[in-house]
Design goal:
Layout lengths: L1 H25 L19 E2 L4 E3 L6 E3 L3 E3 L5 E3 L3 E9 L9 H5 L5 E8 L14
Parallel strand pairs: 3-7
Antiparallel strand pairs: 1-6, 2-5, 4-5, 6-7
Length: 130
């Protein structure tokens, strides 16, 4: 009799444990899951084409030379080269909300990420050498 009660208790405990594990996976909110949104490369690092440079929720880093930005603010390299992080003054377009603010004499600085391709070797030859 005691063995049957213990076995029944053990079965209900295991099923409750399995149920709680299953529901914990199903009802886990997405806010607790880390998205690892940050800068993926260092200043001066070599990157290849289509390498993800940053993952961000807002525009913390703006795309610069030889970079592109996606709808989710992911910045990628368009060409292979070296990463350069800079802080620059913004020159907004006339339809931008910042245009009047900047034209009134205020300075707006933003962080940009650029890709600088390596220098190409000069392949100059004289006509006589061809």
């Amino acid at each position: 009799m005691f063995a049957l009660k213990t076995l029944a208790n053990l079965c209900t405990t295991q099923s409750t444990l399995q149920h709680s594990i299953r529901t914990a996976k199903v009802f886990k909110p997405n806010l607790l899951l880390s998205k690892h949104r940050n800068i993926k490369v260092q200043d001066g690092q070599w990157v290849e084409k289509d390498t993800v440079l940053t993952l961000q929720n807002n525009l913390v880093l703006y795309p610069g030379e030889n970079t592109s930005i996606a709808h989710d603010y992911t910045i990628r390299a368009n060409v292979p080269g070296f990463v350069v992080l800079t802080t620059e003054s913004v020159k907004p377009y006339p339809h931008s909300p910042l245009y009047r603010y900047v034209n009134s004499g205020n300075d707006v600085k933003r962080n940009f990420i650029h890709i600088v391709p390596p220098r190409r070797q000069a392949a100059f030859r004289l006509v006589d050498q061809l």
